[in-house]
Design goal:
Blueprint lengths: L2 E10 L3 E4 H5 L6 H8 L3 E4 L6 H16 L8 E5 L10 H9 L6 E5 L5 H14 L5 E9 L9 H4 L4 E11 L5 E9 L7 E2 L11 H5 L6 E2 L1 H22 L9 E4 L4 H11 L10 H4 L6 H11 L8 E8 L3 E8 L1
Parallel strand pairs: 4-5, 4-6, 11-12
Antiparallel strand pairs: 1-7, 2-3, 6-7, 8-13, 9-10, 12-13
The structure holds coenzyme A.
Length: about 325
């Protein structure tokens, strides 16, 4: 049976660095509190004239160059984002236009918050396997700074802006590339992490702006507990489905939300931290961009070699979650 492989990876993070020290001048917080509670030291912030699609395009160009594939050859383009350029149309259409992806391509966004990249990867994988499409561009891109409440110290210290992208192609060899994925969601926990206003439930109004309803609201403790539980469960299920033990996984790339969540996941799975990729100290939580950004860095740092088994694990608002197993 043929396989779907990641033929190229790319990422982009905006130039502007916002450190914990900078944040301590904006809200009542400190580098010590942020670092010990989250593991984050600094994050990137997009320029005012940089939209989500601009970050996405830069990551995509890098992934296309890595794959040695031209934008004109892409026939499926999916952008996972929780901070689209506009509510309508999809950010994927802006990206298509800026990149020069042809008009016959299928282009759309998906909303699965921080699990969005793994959801998009699963859709691309399935579509290529059916032969409906030949080359897919899968992007996770976020300008979370545009939906962050910079007066709320419980959330603004956590998030950052970035984008990551992969190019998927099909190869005749079996048992390489994406080996499988397991995705899930539990809407019971939807209110633990959400943006209250700006949708059909609470359209934009003077009151919604005064109430700061267009920014992320979060019950951090509940999200923390759910994250540890669902990431461990889905990662374990993925390994069981493929008859794998944790020592066979060369590298775990978890969603980069909080070092304590990542360490709990590693401890519960019995995977040593030197086989878990962490870069949230430099980027914070970049939602759907976090896994492809980490994958790109890990690969360029020589942490991913041909034949390696990698487990990508995510959770996010929804509560969505997922795990994807890849043989490089
Ligand atoms: C947000 C998070 C770092 C908070 O850590 P925590 O250990 O749960 O801290 P708490 O929320 O219990 O707050 C502890 C105290 O610190 C205070 N605090 C909160 N944010 C603070 C900040 N930035 N600086 C200083 N103090 C802060 C709180 O007000 C609270 O004070 P109190 O005890 O006087 O009430 C943690 O819960 C977390 O990471 N949750 C998951 C969030 C996440 O991953 N979201 C994205 C999902 S994709």
């Amino acid at each position: 049976m043929a396989s779907v492989i990641i033929a190229g990876v790319g990422s982009y993070a905006p130039e502007k660095v916002l450190t914990n020290h900078d944040l301590s001048k904006m809200v009542d917080t400190s580098d010590e509190w942020i670092y010990t509670r989250s593991g984050i030291r600094e994050r990137r912030i997009a320029a005012d004239d940089e939209a989500c699609s601009d970050l996405a395009v830069k990551a995509a160009q890098s992934a296309l160059a890595d794959a040695k594939i031209n934008a004109s050859e892409i026939d499926l383009l999916i952008v996972a984002t929780a901070s689209p350029d506009t509510p309508l149309p999809s950010t994927a259409c802006y990206v298509q236009h800026k990149l020069g992806v042809p008009a016959h391509a299928t282009c759309f966004d998906i909303a699965a918050a921080c699990s969005g990249f793994l959801y998009a990867l699963e859709i691309g994988y399935g579509q290529l396997l059916t032969n409906r499409y030949k080359r897919a561009l899968i992007i996770g891109a976020e300008k979370l700074s545009s939906v962050t409440d910079w007066k709320d110290r419980t959330t603004c210290v956590l998030f950052g802006d970035a984008a990551g992208a992969v190019v998927l192609t099909k190869v005749p060899q079996p048992n390489i590339g994406i080996l499988g994925s397991d995705l899930g969601a539990d809407g019971e926990f939807a209110d633990n992490l959400y943006i209250p206003a700006g949708g059909s439930k609470c359209p934009a109004s003077q009151k919604s702006v005064e109430d700061r309803g267009h920014f992320i609201r979060m019950n951090g403790r509940e999200v923390f507990k759910s994250a540890v539980r669902v990431m461990e469960t889905v990662a374990r299920e993925m390994m069981e489905q493929h008859n794998l033990t944790p020592d066979q996984i060369s590298l775990v790339i978890p969603h980069q939300a909080n070092i304590r969540i990542i360490e709990a996941l590693a401890a519960n799975l019995k995977v040593p931290m030197d086989r878990v990729y962490v870069n949230l100290d430099r980027y914070g939580n970049t939602s759907s961009a976090s896994i492809p950004l980490a994958l790109d860095e890990a690969r360029r740092a020589g942490r991913v070699k041909p034949g390696d088994l990698m487990l990508l694990v995510a959770f996010g608002a929804g509560l969505t979650y997922g795990a994807t197993l890849i043989r490089w």
